[in-house]
What does this fold into?
Amino acid sequence: MRLLLGLLLSCHALLALGQPDPFPEIASAYRVEVDGRPVWERQANRRLPPASLTKLMTALLVLDDYHPQAEVAINRSAAGETGSRLGLRNGDRFHVEDLLAAALIHSANDACRALAEHIAGSEAHFVQRMNRRARELGMRDTRFTNACGHDAPGHYSSARDLALLANESLKHPALLELTSKQQEKISALNAPRDYRFANKNALIGRYRGALGLKTGYTPKAGKCLIAYAERGSTKVLLVMLHGCDRWWDTVDILDLAFDHARAAP
It folds into this structure.
């Protein structure tokens, strides 16, 4: 639900008093960082299903050894992915950068699965890499069982861990180049087929300074979001798991975070 005006006006006072949870109704768990420093959080270490926020780890592994023009063949397992998808066809070929755009912007599971199998040979081997990278980042409350974010037993993360993942991912300039696009088109390299898609992040192009990063939704995970915005030298990151009124609450919190940064000594 949209935050009450009174809460917005009093939040600086709440922060000064050390109030740890000024936004108790926005989500099951959240974390807000301003310029890399946590300022507000709630149940940030709680293990919850992250839905397609999972794809940010898939993207990080792609970006860690990025070859944007490498070609990827879509196989039957990728073409048969369920949930959010573009409808990529078995046998078609795409550049890595195009599949990464589809996975991040449209949250396409078929593109995500194709990237995972291209990198590691199979999704199972890729998931092992995901969990190893998570341990390297200190993501203590995270375990992945698939590359795309499907609800599954033992597949979970936390707001704190996803903030670590987001900050690591932001070290790659190519990430924001993709996640800040309002729409994109990709084309198969071996067939006359184009795929056009819009960014599922409703902040992009509508909220000043919004640049990404990832949306997510499943019946179990609810509405999830990693929002990132820049205004001048100020950078704000919000991780929300199982949110309520995801977009309105995010706008309110980002506004308040930028206000907080301006008011800081």
Observations:
- The two ends are 31 Å apart (CA to CA).
- Residues 1-18 have pLDDT under 50 and may be disordered.
- The first helix runs from residue 5 to 16.
